[in-house]
Amino acid sequence: MRNTRRTRALVALAGAAMLALTACSSGSSDDPGGTGGSTSGSSDTPTSGSKDGEKVTLTVWHYYNTDGQVAGLEQLASAFETKHPEVDVQFQYVPVEQMTTKAVTAAGAKKGPDVLVFGASGTYPLAESGAIASMDDWWAQYADADQFPQGVLQKIDGKLYGVQGYVNLLGLWYNQDLLDELGASVPTTIPELEDVMAKAAAAGKQGITLTGKPGLESQWQGFPWFTSQGFSYGDPQAEPMAKTFTMLQDWVAEKYLSKEAATWDQTVPFQQFAAGSSVFAVNGNWQIAAAKEATFQYGVAPLPLSADGGVLLGGEVQNVGAFSEHPDLAKEFLEDSFFSVDGELTLLDSFGSIPARADAAASSKISSDPILSVFGQIVQDQGRPSPSPQVPSKNVDKVETLVGDYWSKAVSGQGKPDDLANQLIAQLDPLLKG
Amino acid sequence: MTRHRREPLAFSFRTLLYVVYGLPLVWIVLTSLKSQGEVLTSQASVVFHPTLDAYRAAIADPALGGALRQSAVVALGTTALCLTFATPAAYALARVRGVIVVPALTLLVVLQMVPQTANLIPLFWLLSRWGLIDTTFGLVLADAAMFLPWAVLLLRPFFGQVPVAIEEAARIDGAATLRTFWSVVLPLARNGFLTVSAVIFLVSWGEFLYGITFMLSPEKYPLSSLIAVQAGAYGVDWPAMMAFAVVSAVPVLVVYVASFRLLSSGLTMGAVK
Amino acid sequence: MTSSTPEAAVPTRAAGPTSPVRAGRGRRSRRAPDRRLALALPAGALLAALAVWPLVQLGRMSLHAVSAATLNGTWERIGLDNYTAMLHDPEFGRVVANTLTFVVVVTVLGMVGGFAVAVAVSSSTKGGTFLLATMVFVWALPPVVNGSIWKFLLADQGLVNQAVRALGGEGVGFLYDPRYALWSVALVNAWAVVPFNALVLRAALLGVDPQVIEAAEIDGARPYQRVWYVLVPTARSAATVLTILTIVYAFRSFDFIYVMTSGGPGTSSTTLPYLAYAQAFLTLDYGRGAATALLSLVVVVVLAVVYARDVRRNEETA
């Protein structure tokens, strides 16, 4: 009986302690409908309210996660906070696949961040759901608007809903030391590429690494290759796709490309390249920091595409949140950070993103850097807007995911190239017709 | 329990378990001590240059303290709330006869089936209508409701194991329903109660999806978000992820060791009829 | 409890079969609803608001064409179109087959493994407790961590393949060979589930009266007989609920698939829950995702009714 009483006491004590702790913490930081001040029970509750009316908080939602990116964001924040001492810029990480859903759902509850940094394929749902508002008026009055090329303006039905402050794109990273060992030079056509990879395979090295996992990323990786073979979203044909899939399967069969690529996103292939196990890597400018881990000489060249081939200009889009409590401050923040020369150069330094602004892109920081200058050139020569304008806005996600899935099937050998291509086009047609 | 259990089968089985569960743990710790570059070059080896960089960075992360506190509050709150509701319900469903039992159990199993992701949007609406978005209490409520069917279904058999005779004896002695439940039945189902509490605590400590969806301020994110951010759109920082996983596991380990002793001491209690 | 037949060893009714208690209960329940039902009211209320209502919303979503773009606007009512689209999807059969394989592997291995471990550590020796503690600790780690580690271990150049090569075999594409990807993820998921099952089963097994075990030993029962005739029946009710919970868990588990293979290569490791997730969050088609999720639910309803009826039958006749 003594044990029972002690047990009872313990359980009661633990329970009470837990409840007290919950009550304490929830009471101090957030009082639903109470006097706490920071969040109230009304439906247009600001997500980042003023603390005692003095400090203004600007919340920025994003999905950046590398150290370099985070450092860049912090620099942008402190620059703005110096200019506006009463403002506290807070960055909130939202995983990329939750970003659109969270923003859209919050918009339904009339809540949202002050600034949203999102992927281009999310522009349509964010606009339609009311999470972001049209930038037309703002942009018409913005003095530096003409510095931004058309390709980085994200429009839905002709209305501007977001601007990319920078672009990310793909290039062919190469291991100079390995090339020297193999006695090869940087390829400028696909047959040349395959020659070098053959030599690499003979020497027991991987020829190339790229993304092959199902989904959006593979569409992005595959775009240069299938457009190079003549595919276009405006006139989707199976033959160029079949040729691309054949190329992929040949590469896997000849051991230029590991079948494991079917599980790779964009980070693992580059890590493999940086570890020296592959001659080439199809990867982006943001890897510039990760590349420094390499213990060999490396460089970047444009992907060896045909004249039809292009490289999508990805990267994130920025806009003010439609439910921001401080829209003017938010606009000013964007104008001072992502849309300014200094801000874009800060981001360039922190993760190699190529500025969208013409004047910033002309900076000597780019022209004097062996890697960045190549990417800058690729933007000029091969750059194409993303998402492709020929894809109806409302089907962008579905189209990109579908194409990515088939790219992955090709890499893993889940079907003959012709069959896969036909199946893909059959499903793609209705989506592209809108 | 008798001591002569030195059967070779049990021994080799245990060894296998140590390998199969110990190896990943060891690998987590090893990875946390590598540098990012070495993670891939030394994929299958234990030879590398150990470094504490990942841990230094993790501990220096300004968000760590707040996230740790938040996870503790959420885990404790969820455990308390969930068990407060689940325990009486499990007892009721263990004892009550009648038509209600089959539909109730069916409903619980069906609710258990609904994936978290399916509840995100409706729960967001609901919580925001109640003004609970971006509040710790809102998150605790959502988590507790999510674990409730599970807790009830798990606790039920333990209440079933409690001999009816003891309950009846208490009732004959004049104890009311609630009192019988609290002072007679609950202590005898202690084993199950503590097991389920520990389990709910562990799972709500690591809960991630509701945390990052219902919280709109970065300082309210739980610790699990710091692990998740290491594997994002732009890169996977393996050593950092593993270091954060280890750091996140330490407080849990402490609670856990303590509760295991409680559990062990409760063994003989449960066996006495 | 001195009887040694398995039925009598079930501890749910320790009183004899003809005790006046049962007769008394029967009389009471015919008069008025059991007062103890009120104890379940708070839980019922919480669930009604935060679990049942969202489920109803899910159902609503599945009957409309809702996407991220239209979520906050008007929903277009399309009846069962989401469901029929699913059935017409050429991959559907494969996804269902994958799901069934996945569920069977995780459930069977999870339950058998869990029970085996529970028996192996059921003695309260320090060694046994430590082993179980380690296993539960691993279980509690986030899937992104566990999944990533196994992704490393099963990679082309990972430890497992190195071991295979050292033993003279060829590397296996555990995660990128369409033949093995699903099995690999299912095995890892089963591995992840075993500690939890072991923990719960052990707690149930500890309710066994040691005298019964000793009596069995004295009667000459061998270890496996002790397990089969004494321990298994004891853990029966806990095992039943665990089995159903494991099946349900396997039916909705997608975290490991997400981390390790993203449903790939192609769709060779896509299961219904992963598909539901991909439809809702990757293509932002909430209506389709809801329909896929509800379809899995329908299957589970059948299982749930079977379980509930089984419980009622067993516990009422004991």
Summary tags:
heterotrimer; B: 273 residues; mainly alpha; two-stranded antiparallel ribbon; 13 helices; globular; C: 318 residues; MetI-like fold; 2 strands; flat
What does this structure look like?
The complex is a heterotrimer of chains A (434), B (273) and C (318). By secondary structure, chain A is of the alpha/beta class. Chain A has 2 domains: 56-164 and 316-352, Periplasmic binding protein-like II (D-Maltodextrin-Binding Protein, domain 2); 170-313 and 387-433, Periplasmic binding protein-like II (D-Maltodextrin-Binding Protein, domain 2), CATH 3.40.190.10. Chain A is 48% helix and 15% strand. In chain A, strands 2-1-3-12-5-4 form a 6-stranded mixed sheet. Chain A has a 4-stranded mixed sheet with strand order 8-9-7-10. In chain A, β1 (56-62), α2 and β2 form a beta-alpha-beta unit. In chain A, α2 runs antiparallel to α13, α8 (216-228) crosses α17 and α17 runs antiparallel to α18 (417-433). The N and C termini of chain A lie far apart (74 Å). The model of chain A is unreliable at 1-51 (pLDDT under 50). Chain B has one domain: Orthogonal Bundle (MetI-like fold), CATH 1.10.3720. In chain B, a hairpin with a 2-residue loop joins β1 (231-232) and β2. Helix content of chain C is 69%, strand content 1%. The relative contact order of chain C is 0.13. Chain C has one domain (93-317): MetI-like fold. Chains B and C meet through α1, α4, α5, α6 and α7 of B and α2, α3, α5, α6 and α7 of C.
Produce a short descriptive summary.
Chain B is built from 13 helices and two strands; from the N terminus they run H-H-H-H-H-H-H-H-H-H-H-H-E-E-H. With 273 residues, chain B is mainly α.
